[in-house]
Amino acid sequence: MIRRLAEAAERVREYGTVAGQVELLRRRVDEAERRLAGLRRAHEREQADVARLEGRSASRLLASLRGSREDDLRRERAEAELAARREVDAEVHLAGLRRDHRAAQVRRAELAGAPAAYAGLLDERERRLLAGADPRAARLAALAAERGRLTARARHVEEATWAAAAARDALAAVRDHLARADNWSTYDTFLGGGMIGSMMKHGRMDDAAAAARVADRRLAALRAELADLPGQWLAPELAVGDLTRFTDIFLDNIFTDLAVRGRIRRARESVDRAGTAVARLRDRLAGEAQEIGQRLAALATERVGLLTTP
Length: 310
Prior knowledge:
By secondary structure, this protein is mostly helical. The chain contains eight helices and no strands. The chain has helices spanning 2-54, 58-66, 69-110, 114-131, 137-190, 194-226, 246-250, 254-308.
């Protein structure tokens, strides 16, 4: 069993190496293709220069008048030949890279089952040790329990992270609608917007209110996800407040315009606070995910050590 594990581990290492080679060769093939395309364009330009001097063209006539046509033609032909050699060399180089890339892809496909095979052997070895009287059994059982707990926690953190991203996007939509409402409020309050200005302003306020309802649902979903995590995890509330419509439109005056403008500004501040709180939560969740990943990696390393020791 130990020998089989060692052989399987070697195949896993080779698989990782070959996978890296496939990616590296893909990038080198892309670079070589771009270089070849540039050399082909350069060759075509040099051939065009030769053709102009050989044919009936203004370039040939001017060179003839200067008495330098033969020298110019020899120079252009030499440059065209050099460009052609460079193009051929680049084609050969690219063909070699493509062969190497295909060979690496084939080998990667042959080794694709190596990680699963190695994991299967480790599981088999673990079952044997747990079923016997091996002194490692207790530690292996503890590692399995800890791994299960951390895996579940990682899933909850991931779900909370997705919920936080959805809340962030929803709050950004509210912020955008409120900014537009604020612009119309400024126009309506200080630039004589009148009935049209008030209607446009409240249209944007209605959009903000609809977006705020979506954001409220996203924040509620985030709070539900955070409830599954141990510790102090608090999601913000979104308090936009009541943005009055009727008196502002039908009793249009500087006082009600200013009042509504103040409410819009306070709503923007509330959304900004909620957005800042969600951003902090996302940072904390990212740190939590990193810590869990590191702990799981350490557990996996210890487990492999126990299972591969004779």
